[in-house]
Amino acid sequence: YFGDAHDCKAFFICSWGVPYRFHCPPGTIWSTAESVCNWSRDVTCQESS
């Protein structure tokens, strides 16, 4: 699992070398530290441009 550098609400799961993009449920964003979607108030996210 790894987060999308351009979208804090998205993450990728790789299977056989192919990345699949998923979105976190409403109100949550990807936590790189925990490798799960967590409440946005509990996660600091910096999107790159």
UniProtKB/TrEMBL annotation:
PROSITE patterns per the UniProt record, alphabetical: CHIT_BIND_II
User: Listed GO molecular functions?
Assistant: chitin binding
Q: Which SUPFAM superfamilies match?
A: Invertebrate chitin-binding proteins
* Domain Chitin-binding type-2 as annotated: residue spans: 1-47
Instruction: List, alphabetically, the GO terms of the cellular component aspect.
Output: extracellular region
Q: Name one Pfam family in it.
A: CBM_14
UniProt protein name: Chitin-binding type-2 domain-containing protein
